[in-house]
Write the structure tokens for this entry.
Amino acid sequence: MIIGTDFIWLHFPKCAGSFTEKLLKKLVPDNGTYLFDPIDTANVIWHQNIQEREKYLNYSLSNKEIICNFRRLPNWIISRICYERERTGQVVSKEAYCRGNFFEQNGKVEHADNYIQKYTKTDVTYWIRVEYLQNDFIKVFSKYFQIDNILIANAFKNRVNASQWNGDISKWFEKDDLATLYSSCPRWAELEMKIYENILV
């Protein structure tokens, strides 16, 4: 999470969050105006939602606009699976991930719609689509501070896919699998339809 004077950026996992955070650190002044979460594995708070952070801080954040990254459901599921496979070696079956399930680091099987429920408990003002990250980033954050277009261009030129898969969802999902995935994740499907005006089925 990043807290500015006028906005809060939520770090939705596997939605180019680390890249977005590093880019924001380069763009905003280092004068205490923007609060970045410390990376402390003994106190993991950077994936909190608004309610969790308000409880953690013991004060309200209701006076700020909310920004959050988002991506298409099949891409997110694949990225999540690849990340956990790299981190712990755990991979759910195809039947399970076609229903939106995946392993967390602690071995718990989680579901994609639970993440939608978590990050939309407070209305999000602006969504930044991972598939259009550069354009959406500029469009949204230029409302709050001066954008350095040269820095932005260089950052995106050198961007690396942290999950290290080639973006071909056909190697993971057939057409019927995608239909099963979206029908098993109605919250995600509804939000994706709202943000992208279609879903990948």
Notes: The chain has one domain: 2-196. The mean pLDDT is 94.
